[in-house]
Design a protein that fits this description.
With 134 residues, the chain is an alpha+beta fold. The chain has one domain. 39% of the residues lie in helices and 24% in strands. A hairpin with a 7-residue loop joins strand 2 and strand 3. Helix 3 packs antiparallel against helix 4 and helix 3 packs parallel to helix 5. 22% of the residues are buried.
Amino acid sequence: MVCHYDNITVAKALAARLVVRDRRAREREPDCAIKLEGFITDIDDLLAKDPRRLTDVFAVLNRHFPLHGCTMDEASRIVMKSKYFKSVGINGPMHVFSLSSETGFSRGVYVSFGLWDDNGDSHLPFAMWSPPFL
């Protein structure tokens, strides 16, 4: 069977989308607590303005994620400071943090992200309208 992919083109496309970091590069990243505090400040500011586009919310997520080496106690303490904090739960080997600007009278934005218990790295930062459109 003949491969119909141009392997060089595929490799270049992957290289453009993947960032391989060595240990030294990772150590130069801002501390998790600093990045998470910045995220909470920025997301609270944005949600207070009642954003009309989810792309604005995703821009905040993209600015602050991924997170690395977070401790659950510290992350919980920081996230719970948010005006929009809703919950923290456990989903297998991960803590999942939820924020929402929804009220009983108006739609809002739901934001969540997970932190792996074993290494404190973030997983799947996400945003959607709340309640979702049907």
